[in-house]
Structures are given as structure tokens and as C-alpha cells.
Amino acid sequence: MAQSATASELGRRVNLLDQNIRLAREAHAEILEAIRNIHDAAVLRLEVLKDELTPLLSGNPAARRFVDLALVPGHPPRLWIDMTSYVIMSPDPSTYLLQRDSFSSSEVLFQSSQRDEMVAAILRHVASHLVEREKQLQIMSAAESGWVIPASRSSSLMLAWLSGLTLGISMMAAVLSWAIH
Questions:
Q1: Under 8 Å CB-to-CB from 4, ≥6 apart: which residues?
Q2: Among residues of the chain, what percentage have pLDDT more than 70?
Q3: pTM of the predicted structure, to 2 decimals
């Protein structure tokens, strides 16, 4: 009888473990469902942002060539503005975050929970890039036409190089002078 009591006790403990495993799986499934819901909400918010930006940017030929709005529903979902800039929902699912990637880091350009503020920030960002691109095209056009660009940059570089050389020679002379005495 004692053996059957321990066997039933063992069976009860195994059932208790099975119940706890089932509860843990259910809790894990609920967490995954919540994460999926947050992800879906972020994708929807970015989709609405994209729909609002599309007519604003498509009216400008230069912007159409520069901007390619692309919603990538990965983790985290991203609305790409151009080759280096994108919007994500971070640090929470109701906050838009405009970022620009570089070779070594990501730079936060703007953050807001208001979609209209984010639209304005994206338009400022695109306008800034378009003006920068126009300047680069003007410089390239001037260089191709034979117009000489002022050499202020090259003269500054030459002055810095000569200053470094002079300082280096002076330091070596001082060290040699000190070592000899």
C-alpha cells in the first residue's frame, strides 16, 4: 500500500509538472501574440505615414528621383526614406523615430509621437538633401566646364601640412639638442 501511495504521489507531481509546462507555454504564446500585435500596429502606423508622404513627395521631380519610400515589415519595421534614412516606431509603439545610418553609427534626426510633426521633419530632411545634391551637381558642372574652383581648401591643407612638418622638425631638433647635452 505504501508503494501505491508513492506511485500515486509521483503521478500527481508529474501531472503538476505537465500543468506548469502547459501554463508556461500559454504564457509564452501570449507574449508572442502581444509582440505580434505591437509589430502589426507599428507596420500600420508606418503605412499611414507612407500614404501621407507619397503625394507630398511625388509632386517634385527631384524628390521622386531621390526618395524611394519603402516599407519593410521586418523587426523592427522600417519606412525607408532614402538609402540611409528611415523611420521606425521606437522607443515605444506610438513614437516615430527618424534615423540616418552611417558607416559607424546611427544618428537620430527627429523623434515625435505626432505624425504631422514627423511628416514635417521628413520633408525638411528631404529638402536639405535635395539642396545639398543641387550644390554638388553645380560644383561638378563647373569643374567639367573648366571653371576653376577657388583653392581655399587646398591652400588650407597645404598650410596645415607645412605647419605639421615645421613643428615635427623643430621637435626633433629640440630632442636631439637635449640628448646631446
A1: none
A2: 88
A3: 0.63
